[in-house]
Amino acid sequence: MNMQQFSSVTGLSAHTLRYYEKIGLLRNIQRSKSGHRVYTERDLAWVEFVLKLKETGMPLEGILRYASLRAEGSHTVHARQALLEEHREALLLHIERQKMLLTALEQKIDLYRENKVA
Questions:
Q1: What own/partner pairs with CB < 8 Å and gap ≥ 24 does 107-112 have?
Q2: Which residues make Cβ contacts (< 8 Å) with residue 113, sequence separation at least 6?
Q3: Residue 116: its pLDDT value, please?
Q4: Are residues 86 and 35 part of one domain?
Q5: Most buried in the list 19, 35, 70, 71, measured by CB within 10 Å?
Q6: Tens digits of per-residue pLDDT, 21-63?
Q7: Domain range spanning residue 22?
Q8: Measured between alpha carbons, how far is 66 from 88 in angstroms, rounded to an integer?
Q9: Contact call for residues 49 and 12 (beta carbons, < 8 A)
Q10: Is 42 exposed, middle or buried (0-12, 13-18, 19+ CB in 10 A)?
């Protein structure tokens, strides 16, 4: 698929896709005879995973580290797993904190509903 199609499917702008290529998040993008980028299903699966990591709050530095390990090959699988497990722990702590904040917010809303707070 060409850049316009890939951009449409991923929701990322052409500028972002070029930036991801420049910083090493997207590697070895194929080119057509005319020099235009040609994205594969594998590229799509990778970008979708990168976007999920972003949504979980993984910093770009962590995503780049994961991408670098991935590019090194299968001998880095344990390092990649460790990086993801570390991020999972941080995400779980964040979720717990958000749950506590949500509870506090709901309690305040309940007070307003019961007209107990001016």
A1: none
A2: none
A3: 72
A4: no
A5: 70
A6: 999 999 999 999 999 999 999 999 999 999 999 999 999 999 9
A7: 1-55
A8: 14
A9: no
A10: exposed
Half-sphere exposure of 63 (CA within 13 A, CB side): 20
Tell me what pLDDT residue 115 has: 84
Residue 91 has pLDDT above 80, yes or no: yes
Whole-number pLDDT of residue 117: 65
More confident residue, 50 or 114: 50
What number of other Cβ atoms are within 10 A of residue 68's Cβ?
15
Same domain, 98 and 110: yes
Q: Which helix (H) or strand (E) holds 38?
A: strand 37-38
Residue type (1 letter), 35 = G
Q: Are residues 22 and 47 in the same domain?
A: yes
Q: Does the pLDDT value for residue 118 go beyond 80?
A: no
